[in-house]
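> run fold GNAT family N-acetyltransferase
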Amino acid sequence: MRAGVVALRPIRVRDAGDWSRIRLRDQNHLERWEPTAPGPWADRNGFWSWPTQWLALRGLARRGQCLPFVITVDGDYAGQITVGNVIRASLRSAWIGYWVSSTAVGGGVATAAVALLVDHAFSAGGLHRIEATVRPENEPSIRVLTKAGFRQEGLFQRYLDVAGDWRDHLCFAITAEETGPGLAARLVRDGRAEYV
Ligand code: ACO
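> ok
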């Protein structure tokens, strides 16, 4: 399947409509992979939940602690991707997390988005290492990280409170030295994407 043109742009407060519509519809697709949070899904993902989340993410971004982006496909809102918990000084490390609308999966969207954001984080963002933790059952996400060039480093036991319980997570990582010409350029070289 050909996904379309994948791009990243900053999050906006006016994303509330798209964000909420997709997340309310996609509860079954998303909830089992996301951190446990108080309150029903419908409340946490309603239209008026977004401005609060947007403000929090924008505040972290302004302090250099987070790089939050919307994933677009052919200009339309298709998901979110975030580099978070940015630590500077001699660590220069962060985690990456993402989700893609159920109507846009299976075409390489998440892989392209990961490649674009990792390249940005290692260049303009000045980071050296990016980590991704994923449940062993989440085969599509493991495939995304493997295709993008992440290495599996180990298993964190009972690592994160996800979907109501402490879940084991595989740890994947990549450092700047491993990206060669860049992850996006590698996807193109390997025939998984093309420049437009
Ligand atoms: N078993 C094995 N592989 C699978 C399965 C499956 N059940 N379903 C899909 N895949 C493969 C696809 O075939 C594809 O691989 P291929 O290109 O070799 O054919 C790969 O998984 C998916 O790659 P993309 O198309 O780049 O990814 P997509 O745009 O479909 O998004 C994502 C994947 C983000 C995991 C999406 O399914 C999603 O949003 N899931 C719910 C939220 C989520 O799990 N987020 C990630 C949490 S972990 C983290 O953020 C580090």
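The chain has a mean pLDDT of 97.
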